[in-house]
Amino acid sequence: MKIRNSLKSLRARHRDNQLVRRKGRIYIINKTQKRYKARQG
């Protein structure tokens, strides 16, 4: 999992990327391409 300052550009890289908020953190998850996983902050 990558830890990034900004997730906006990462979200645009694949159409299945989802922006999810869990426990005060923001995550990018993708069910079809598992390599697109990121967390902010």
SSE arrangement:
Blueprint: E1 2-4, H1 8-11, E2 18-22, E3 25-29, E4 38-40
Parallel strand pairs: 1-4
Antiparallel strand pairs: 2-3, 3-4
Q: Can you walk through the features of this model?
A:
There is one protein chain. This protein is mainly β. The chain contains one helix and four strands. A four-stranded mixed sheet has the order 1-4-3-2, with no helix packed on it. β3 and β4 form a beta hairpin. The longest helix is centred in the N-terminal third of the chain and has 4 residues. The chain is globular.
* Unreliable spans: none
Shape descriptor reads globular
The overall pLDDT average reads 94
Distance between the termini: 12 Å
Question: Could you estimate the helical fraction of the residues in percent?
Answer: under 10%
Work out the radius of gyration.
9 Å
Q: What series of H and E elements makes up the topology?
A: EHEEE
Please give the count of helices: 1
Major β-sheet annotation? 4 strands, mixed
**How many runs of DSSP E, i.e. beta strands?**
4
Strand content: 35-45%
The side-by-side strand order for the widest beta sheet comes to: 1-4-3-2
Category by helix and strand content: mainly beta
